[in-house]
Amino acid sequence: MEDTKDSLAFKGVAERLTLGITRILENMPGVVDVRFAEREPAEKRSLLSWEQKNTCILPEDLRDFYLTADGFTLTWSVKLDDECVPLGCMMINSVTRLCRLLQPVSLFSLPNAPSLADLDWEENSTECGSEHAPATPHFDSRSRIFELDSCGGNGKVCLVYKNCTPGVVAQQSEIWFLDRSLCWHFLTATFTSYYRLMITHLGLPEWQYSFTPYGPSPQAKQWASLYQPLTFRSELSLADPAGDSHVNKLDPTRAFKGKAKVPAPKKKQSAQCSLGSTAKSQSSTGRHSGTKR
Prior knowledge:
Blueprint: H1 2-18, H2 21-26, E1 31-36, H3 44-54, H4 60-68, E2 72-80, E3 83-92, E4 144-149, E5 156-161, E6 174-178, E7 184-188, H5 191-200, H6 218-227, H7 229-239, H8 252-255, H9 265-292
Antiparallel strand pairs: 1-2, 2-3, 4-5, 5-6, 6-7
């Protein structure tokens, strides 16, 4: 009886934690193998240890999340030609895996070894973003960056503390996306807003690239239009109010229009020959009539 009560209690917590997205996915056509990993709540001492180690204060909403479940993993697949293909993945690292993106330089490394901090300079701070976007994070000591999700190798979703001072506890944080070209893109100001975005986008591949100027890949757009048509169309209208100007438009009436057949030159020559023969025949008949006269 206690086991059944515990399982029912966990199902209730999981239902509230996933906002009912598991039932929605299971009712979608072609979706199979929806898996939600059970996680125990994180201990308060592990949260305090993380804060002391990294000299940062966890946001209140992220702290409450970890006290409910130490991480989040939800995956789902689609069935194509009797084969299950992994597609969606929603993940938030546990407290132990909430590691710093830039580890301190080792004493045994070469003195002139390149690092990400070498790519960070003031002249290029607004190169990857727009003029009205928030100030981008830095790869040096001015920012403290922690990885929330590796995005399957397509980038990294990070918890970022900006305007940091060595030895001073950082408190204000934001959620940013670091793409594969090492450009920063602002996602949300709070963890709760990012969590809702992740659930809304169903963990589809490269959904974070919807918040970049260039967007996701064509294959990812096809998956989004299939399993997320409403949000996908609204994002396209916001990104390009004039329409799908970046999509190649094909006009079938022009592309497959048959060309007019050009008459062969032999037919022209035959026609000219026939005209010449008629002219010769007329001249010959005129001569014959003149001789008779």
